[in-house]
């Protein structure tokens, strides 16, 4: 009976030792998986940051182009108004000269 008890305790001891080895192995595997996940996540984060930087740069470039185009539009409208004023002035002058001519 004592020998059976000793045998049971030895078996339990071996099972616990094996369970500890298995746990240690699993822990190492999990550690490797975690490190790979973190590395992949960091790469993904860096990719997203680069993409955001590129998008921001593109947006800024487009804003500069937009401002330039808006300035050109304002200048063209101003030129059109000046031309209209000149045309109206010339028309008035023409009308005046036409009225001075004998019929």
Sum up the structure in keywords.
103 residues; mainly alpha; 96% helix; 0% strand; rod-shaped
Description:
It contains one helix and no strands. The chain is mostly helical and 103 residues long. The chain has one helix spanning 2-100. The radius of gyration is 44 Å and the shape is rod-shaped.
Order of helices and strands: H
Distance between the termini: 148 Å
Low-confidence stretches: none
Q: What is the C-alpha radius of gyration, as a whole number of Å?
A: 44 Å
User: What is the global morphology?
Assistant: rod-shaped
Helical/strand content category: mainly alpha
Q: Report mean pLDDT, rounded to a whole number.
A: 93
- Major pleated sheet: none
The total strand number stands at 0
Per DSSP, the total helix count is 1
- Helical content stands at over 70%
**Quaternary structure state of the chains depicted:** single chain
Strand content: under 5%
Summarize the structure.
The chain is mainly alpha-helical and 103 residues long. The chain is 96% helix and 0% strand.
List the helices and strands and how they pair.
Layout: H1 2-100
